[in-house]
């Protein structure tokens, strides 16, 4: 299986601009990418990063500490292939689907809660000529596996519903993958809560995920007000 | 397994008051309860409703059309036992845990996306003397299975983290159940989006869930603005 991780290298995570500066958003996006790449390699697959611009995984990714169950041929993070395609997400992903000669998995780079277990379930899902989708909040397509040669993505709007419809049109059986972890993408300040709550369960070694660690370094902590949990940032 | 569904019968879903009147909130809460009870009965378990006040399931629940895989002894919705306990949620649930002589599952009544498959996975999770929790957004405890005799709940705040800590204190192994469907409780207007997106996959018969149908009857439809999906209400 060809596992592709699209990554917006240039202006990542603009919806977090209320709480994070541009360099902080870049650092957080890199930490999430590193967590996602680690989780994928721990399933035994070698991911390909589909980046909007050239990217050094060795120096900017902080994913040099790959899991011990690294797939053959992957010695360090710098061995993870990076494909540069500066087109919008949908066009870049469809180029990957068109060129593919094997099943393709597309895993978003901001699935900071992704675990090897959740990804393994995803990769094993879907019929031999079908499509499997892990939906996100608001009808997003957070991760999918494409085994039908004619399936193409369109990430605009409620893409999960559009992808269901498209799959039905081309006769591709569609399976919905039920995962809270894959369903949680980090786009908005409220999503940071999930990283801090679940970050310690995400890392394979029982430690904390890179994303959670980075958030704490930036001063974020959980805060409970009126029975509801939010994040607060200490800028001292 | 004793499956308990706590239900706030009197003033349900106050956080939806921006978009729904009190009688509409009551109707929506009843539809969600009916969907949850149907999904539980389809797993072969007889749920008990733990209600804050007396409740007629036959006339107010719209769950008279039980699934065909109804457990033995459950002929109609009016056979679903209702226990009335007007104490706050935590106290009422802990009374159930204290009295239990078998494993107890607590499933919130607003898990409108719950499917028999997701619930079956939950019910089968957790060690013989442990606890299994399906967390919700913001660290909530949306559903759990308790097999350790000393485990007690506390639903205030980030209850998922508190429950993890409590389980560790009493030596109960804790398993986190990874489910988008069980992780989605319907509390706020933004959650209604999920009901409309996934409602058609939720009903066992391939139709639409009662909750989604009720929302459409109330005039709610999905709306895509700037690539993001919200609900809009047509009050005409």
Secondary structure elements and pairings:
The structure is a homodimer of 236-residue chains.
Chain A: E1 2-7, H1 22-42, E2 47-51, H2 57-60, E3 82-84, H3 89-99, E4 104-107, H4 116-123, E5 131-135, E6 141-146, H5 159-169, E7 174-176, H6 189-202, H7 210-217, E8 220-225, E9 228-233
Parallel strand pairs in A: 1-2, 1-4, 2-3, 5-7
Antiparallel strand pairs in A: 4-6, 5-6, 8-9
Helix pairs in contact in A: 1-7, 6-7
What report would you give on this structure?
The structure is a homodimer of 236-residue chains. Chain A has seven helices and nine strands; from the N terminus they run βαβαβαβαββαβααββ. With 236 residues, chain A is an alpha/beta fold. In chain A, β5 and β6 form a beta hairpin. The relative contact order of chain A is 0.16. Chains A and B meet through α6 of A and α6 of B.
CATH topology of chain A: Spore Coat Polysaccharide Biosynthesis Protein SpsA, Chain A
Number of separate domains of chain A: 1
**String of helices and strands of chain A:** EHEHEHEHEEHEHHEE
Major β-sheet of chain A, in short?
7 strands, mixed
Percent of residues in β-strands of chain A? 15-25%
- Per DSSP E runs of 2 or more residues, the count of β-strands of chain A stands at 9
Number of distinct helices of chain A: 7
Cα distance spanning the termini of chain A: 46 Å
Identify low-pLDDT runs of chain A: none
CATH superfamily of chain A: Spore Coat Polysaccharide Biosynthesis Protein SpsA, Chain A
Largest interface: A-B, 31 and 31 residues
Q: What's the quaternary structure here?
A: homodimer
Output the strand order for the largest sheet of chain A. 3-2-1-4-6-5-7
Give Rg of chain A in angstroms.
17 Å
> What general outline of chain A do the C-alpha atoms trace?
globular
Q: Would you tell me the structural class of the helices and strands of chain A? A: alpha/beta
Helicity level of chain A, as a percent range? 25-40%
CATH class of chain A: Alpha Beta
The whole-number mean of residue pLDDT values of chain A reads 90
Which CATH architecture of chain A would you pick? Alpha-Beta Complex
């Amino acid at each position: 299986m060809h596992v592709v991780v699209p990554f917006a290298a240039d202006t990542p995570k603009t919806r977090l601009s209320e709480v994070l500066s541009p360099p902080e958003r870049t650092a957080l996006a890199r930490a999430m990418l590193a967590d996602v790449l680690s989780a994928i390699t721990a399933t035994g697959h070698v991911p390909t990063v589909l980046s909007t611009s050239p990217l050094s995984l060795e120096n900017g990714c902080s994913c040099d500490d790959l899991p011990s169950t690294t797939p053959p041929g992957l010695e360090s993070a710098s061995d993870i292939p990076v494909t540069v395609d500066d087109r919008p997400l949908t066009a870049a992903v469809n180029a990957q689907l068109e060129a593919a000669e094997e099943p393709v998995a597309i895993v978003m780079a901001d699935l900071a809660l992704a675990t090897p277990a959740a990804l393994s379930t995803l990769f094993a899902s879907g019929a031999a000529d079908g499509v499997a989708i892990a939906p996100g909040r608001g009808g997003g397509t957070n991760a999918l596996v494409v085994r039908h040669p004619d399936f193409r993505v369109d990430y605009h709007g409620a893409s999960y519903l559009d992808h269901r419809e498209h799959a039905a049109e081309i006769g591709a059986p569609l399976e919905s993958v039920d995962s809270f972890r894959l369903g949680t993408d980090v786009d908005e300040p409220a999503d940071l809560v999930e990283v801090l709550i679940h970050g310690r369960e995400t890392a394979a070694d029982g430690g904390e995920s890179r994303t959670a660690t980075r958030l704490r370094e930036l001063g974020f902590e959980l805060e409970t007000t009126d029975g509801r949990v939010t994040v607060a940032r200490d800028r001292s």
